[in-house]
């Protein structure tokens, strides 16, 4: 829910409220139900509201608690806010609203930065302390909610989206060469804190940052699940069947938590295992008339563009109010351009277009949906995990890079212009450092930890947030419930790899879902027109890569671009993505942001 923004100055000047207002206005789609601004001396906060909990004006933000000397802005949802409220009331706190925002502010007053340890939910927040002048920024454990930052000698600005920061002005929009290296090698993932723009950073997930009035910063990373068998001693020695029961129990709790809302909650139903399991568990909870939504596209390149057969099966099985959303060719090109504009960072996955179109349709029916993102990263559902099962920790990085990286560092010299090329293999070194850290028993454990903490945050999670919030739609992801993630991290790797991946989840699902869903081939949101670029899509990419802005920027070696344009479907990355789309999307995004 919502979008937040703000500024803290360190140079003795008052905050630039007009700049915060501009940032706020850009996030109108994230919060179409209201707007607010607040300032006091060097600090200003802005907020765009999506009404999900406490629909009254008492839940409006920025939320000022004069008695406590705190003002806060918050994006997300605390699913356990009612329990926290009861605890705080028992400690003597009095409430003027029924919102989870007020619970967050009072929790911070009571427990300081340690309040985040008590939160069950997704969140990004900023709290300004009146008496100390400090600003505290926080982000949830899995980075479900974003927080972008821009800083110079005189001030810090922050916002829920990168385009909002640009609207504030004064941002260095040069290309960050390290981020570009990550984008071109690490499957388009740019880990926090970097973004593709040199002047924009992002608060890492599971981090609370305290900013003093003079600009001094202290970070506290408050969570990271151990990928070891000893992480949760109470689960030691479980049989495979008992692991299935434990996983299903945690997932039930995660789905139940995400039903908390003062508006109806639907489900994005692809027909795959993960979203189908959410529907089954909601039905088990007694949710009648559940709204479910599926999207399909025209076939292209011999590839089918919908999975309606599976989603229809699940909808019939559980009696949902199901909405099929077929998208014809005439909507695809405008949707693609709109999706690119909605991205806070360049995101190559064609899922973005699917989620953008799906969100547009769904937002006309409900304001909140549950979605199945995260299950593949948490329960080892992807193709690059099995090759890691038999290798040593020392071999983990080389195996991971071979299976997952789009290309090697050595091949970049023939793709990037010399001024953007780095001598050092920064992406490979990042992965090697991460995989070598303690806290993971096996090579596969280390890779799952990397993907949970980094790839998941800066690819699928970001994708879902950006595309749904472009239409004021809040997406909730039960597979990213932190207690479920902790359990999955401790689960023996062989149980996760069984049955072609996600074995323990599949076995748990057999108690609730038809075999045709559990045992179906792995699917995804297919958007064939982007996997197989031709016609107006090819012309769009060609114009982006050969136009004046691209020539002036000079990111890519022109002969390489010409080779891709001459054979747009022949050149693929390691995992089969279209190499031309990867280049074209980056340039399209930069141009959409006006940089």
UniProtKB/TrEMBL annotation:
Pfam family, one: GATase_7
Domain of life according to the entry: Bacteria
Reaction(s) catalysed by this chain's protein: L-aspartate + L-glutamine + ATP + H2O = L-asparagine + L-glutamate + AMP + diphosphate + H(+)
EC number: 6.3.5.4
Family matches, as InterPro entries: Asn_synth_AEB (IPR006426), Asn_synthase (IPR001962), ASN_synthetase/amidase (IPR051786), AsnB_N (IPR033738), Asparagine_synth (IPR017535), GATase_2_dom (IPR017932), Ntn_hydrolases_N (IPR029055), Rossmann-like_a/b/a_fold (IPR014729)
Domain Glutamine amidotransferase type-2: start-end pairs: 2-214
Keyword Transferase: no
Enzyme class per UniProt: ligase
Pathway involvement of the protein, from the record: Amino-acid biosynthesis; L-asparagine biosynthesis; L-asparagine from L-aspartate (L-Gln route): step 1/1
This protein's UniProt keywords: Amino-acid biosynthesis, Asparagine biosynthesis, ATP-binding, Glutamine amidotransferase, Nucleotide-binding
Family that this chain belongs to: Belongs to the asparagine synthetase family.
Protein name (record): asparagine synthase (glutamine-hydrolyzing)
Origin species: Streptosporangium oxazolinicum
